[in-house]
């Protein structure tokens, strides 16, 4: 998943990384890549940015705003991260209404937003907060950056997750891509703003697709074990055409 995303990043864009292991994995891969002149405009500053900066990948020289500065609202990570940020003139801690302002994000060309998800349904709704009534996390600024990157000239928003998850109590494996969300699930990113979806089975751009086209694309990156079931559910919901081919 991380490799697919890194391959989609050009030289010079501004980055926002969400919370979790995926952003840090992507950061390490970028640090080892040939990418250069990256910028940072994010809500949460994580260790991945320190790795990229240490590798000389971050210059912020191509940003339309805050040139030369990495912009963030708060930081969380290891001592290495705090040591790097301490009294560093190249980093600017700003209020969240500055970092997460959608218009400001959209004004930065080629903005790249990378976030994770708990569940995704066939309509393109994303939950990164709960599974049913079970609360896992909070919204954070995910929707702000999804929409900002969506509107950015040349920008890309990525929502990524493994195609399956295993229940720790029962050992049951289920698909993270569902026909519809479980009752009580909180929607974090809306279907109308979804751009790129990524699993280990591929990546799809659903921007501007019709409902049935979106369902087809999303099913195409689900775990193969669950695709027939998802197609059957999509047919039941009348968002599938028999002429579709995956």
Helix and strand layout, with pairings?
Elements: H1 2-7, E1 14-17, H2 21-31, E2 39-40, E3 44-45, H3 47-54, E4 70-72, E5 74-75, H4 79-85, E6 91-93, H5 96-99, H6 102-106, E7 112-116, E8 119-121, E9 126-127, E10 130-131, E11 134-135, H7 142-151, E12 156-160, E13 164-166, E14 173-175, E15 177-178, E16 196-199, E17 202-205, H8 211-220, H9 224-236
Parallel strand pairs: 1-2, 1-7, 3-5, 4-6, 7-12, 8-15, 12-16
Antiparallel strand pairs: 8-9, 10-11, 13-14, 16-17
Helix pairs in contact: 2-3, 8-9
Protein described:
With 246 residues, the protein is of the alpha/beta class. The protein has helices spanning 2-7, 21-31, 47-54, 79-85, 96-99, 102-106, 142-151, 211-220, 224-236; strands at residues 14-17, 39-40, 44-45, 70-72, 74-75, 91-93, 112-116, 119-121, 126-127, 130-131, 134-135, 156-160, 164-166, 173-175, 177-178, 196-199, 202-205. The chain is built from 9 helices and 17 strands. Strands 2-1-7-12-16-17 form a 6-stranded mixed beta sheet, with helices on both faces. The protein has a 3-stranded mixed beta sheet with strand order 9-8-15, with helices on one face. β8 and β9 (126-127) form a beta hairpin. The two termini are 20 Å apart.
